[in-house]
Amino acid sequence: MIGISKLYMGQVEVSDPLRYGRHSGKLPSHLLQFSADKKPVVVWNVTSACNLNCTHCYAATKGIQDELSTDDALAVIDDLAAFGVPVLLFSGGEPLVRPDIFTLAEHAANRGLRVVFSTNGTLIDSATARRIKAVGASYAGISIDGMEEVHDRFRVCPGAFQRSLEGIRYCREVGVKVGLRVTMTRDNVAEIPAVFDLMEAENIPRICLYHLVYCGRGAEIAGHDLGHDLRRRTIDLIIDRTRELHERGMPIEVLTVDNHCDGPYLYMRMLAEGNPRAQEVMELLKMNGGNSTGHGLACISWDGTVYPDQFWRNKPVGNVLKKPFSEIWGNPDPDSLLGQLRNKKQYVTGKCVDCRFLDVCGGNFRARAEAITGDIWGVDPACYLTGQEIAES
């Protein structure tokens, strides 16, 4: 994640310790207490079932497949808590479809995990919002991919936009922090200004704008991804809208996700603008380290399979029914996939090898690189930095 509001506007945000305290190095004084290496944020696809059939879904499943029992799931949570996982994100499918989801969420919160939901929002009524609040969830990310016509087309469900918007309002009413999740493609990128307008109108404090990753149904629409020029213009638009809202007294949290060259691009823009905070931003980006697949980010699937991240679902690294997550993740063999992902400089190819921003982006997304090049260490096609930009000193 690239914190546009944090980096460009200098805003202090709740997730700063996770984003900039994971790696050792010189930290700002207010983050020194978080300088120790952190355990991974875990995305848990607790169910394959979903009430929608979205065109860009990375899980892309139909119906309920093998799922961990409640007892097995509670045992996983105990292991995650003992291992020191800071955040547990319940996803799916649609996590609210799972009957015992609030039992799991409450147990996780009671064990000291920060509990987060990733949901399409259509199942959140007043009672559900109150339950999300009661179990101790700190945040609900709700997917909005454009205004009504575009969103409903993405979700293949007439009325989905209005139901999701109602879910957002119910969460806001009971005091659950809520944010928008937008997956950007050529089919909805023109909607981004209207989505920012919606945030302002509804007083929504956070937005995550995701670059498309080519897996699940997302692989079927890879040709709809943003080209390099359009991607750069879109990042500029996001930066501009963030600044405008801050200047109007609405300091929203804005992040772009799944394309870590957004960080160097923002840094170079700040240099060009003569922004005195540009070097501070570069230090923060180095602390963040870029893509953390297989290190700072993990995924557990509905059947207990562990993956390096939620998108790279053809690369299982274990199963929690056979070995605890803490043992799978803790000390992998250096030659294993997890071991290699934690020492990526030895394996990246192409323009990444000599890129001056390798420490900042971490080689970007391996799942996207493999999808296009067939090589897990190939160059991520979503990197839009030019040869001149990556070579300049």
Brief descriptors of the model:
393 residues; globular
Q: Can you walk through the features of this model?
A:
This protein is 39% helix and 13% strand. With 393 residues, the chain is an alpha/beta fold. The protein has an eleven-stranded mixed β-sheet with strand order 1-8-7-6-5-4-3-2-9-10-11. Helix 4 links the parallel strand 3 (87-91) and strand 4.
How much of the sequence lies in strands comes to 5-15%
The H/E string reads EHHEHEHEHEHHEHEHHEHHEEEHHHHH
Low-confidence segments, ≥5 residues, pLDDT <50?
Answer: 22-36
Total count of strands: 11
Radius of gyration: 20 Å
Q: Percent range for helical residues?
A: 25-40%
What kind of sheet is the major sheet? Answer: 11 strands, mixed
What's the number of helices?
17
Distance between the termini: 25 Å
Average pLDDT rating: 91
